[in-house]
Amino acid sequence: MPHEARPRRIAVTGLGAVSAAGWGVAALWPALREGRTALGPFSRIDHTRHRTHVAGQVPDAPFSARLPRHLARLSFSERFALFAAREAVADAGLAGPLEDGPVGVFFGTSTGGLLESEWYLDRFWQGNGGRAALNLMAGHQLNAPGDAVARHLRVTGPVETISSACASAALAIAAALRALQEGEVELAIAGGSDCLCATTYAGFNSLRSVDESPCRPFGQDRGGLSLGEGAGVLVLEPLERARTRGARVRAQLLGAGASCDANHMTAPLESGQGAAAAIAGALADASTGPEQVGYVNAHGTGTPLNDAAEWAALVTAFGDRAPRVPVSATKSIVGHLLGSSGAIEAVATVLCLEAGEAHPTAGDGPVDSRLKVDLVRGEPRRLSGDPAALSTSLGFGGANAALVFARGPGEAA
Known about the structure:
The protein is an alpha/beta fold.
């Protein structure tokens, strides 16, 4: 919801990421810039009986990313979250526990530690679900990733978990924005984490919404999404605070908006009006006109209905300009991270703004002729001027979220 008074500008001072491209932002950015997909065969779960066999699995952790033994019992979702949060905090120039001062954790997830719960259930049915195996259930609850971050970084302020399908992490970042603007916290660790699991892979296959090949957002022959896993984290703080402590300002988070289609459990409104309302709300909250947006990091799942509805929303938001606004689809590279997709795509958006270029969308073939999307392909596209950037997240149940970013002060290309 828009704020009449905006006493605080919010800076992004730290980024962290875990994805199929690898552990860390240093692994993510080259894949984005090269338009190199990390989607392919995977082994996290048994998918032999399914129609599709492609996903974005996080590779084994390099030695530098491995957790100490006392953290080895964490679920994959918690491990992803903790690594990305630690990377973002270090990137922000912060050291040691964060227990001093009002610091909050705001996290989104869709499944929490469901993978490990599946493992436990499998052992249980085989008669091997003893007391030791119960440790697998420790991260079952949806608040586990955010709680793990707070616990291990010694954050004593508010810890909020949002689970609203694929809009979860974007909504968590929006909640962090509000808490900072209202002075509830002075520093926020915001993002999301999710892991591949049998339940979601089987569910999306049963809906026949998964492509047999790596997804092709907005493509003429697109056949569905590709699931992924990982985490994205942003460190957010008031701009004046960041300047006072001499932090690098990687970008500004200007505003956020949300809405619900109130239409269907899985299908979006064909008109895109729900998504358009979230975009309009984010632009109003950011005090930014549609003409100031020069880049869109789209939800871009690659499903026929979702891509068409999102394009309709962009046309509503930008009018005749829509076909001239560069669009990237990060899911073509790392897959659909479900509850954490909005976080990894927020990280991608900030990286693009910082570099002054839109990352290319992976894949080839023609763009859907009915959708006049200016899809960035092949190589990075230089962003003209000093644009604002829009990142959209559209989830099941009609949950929509949109975030508006801008370069940090003095970062104009």
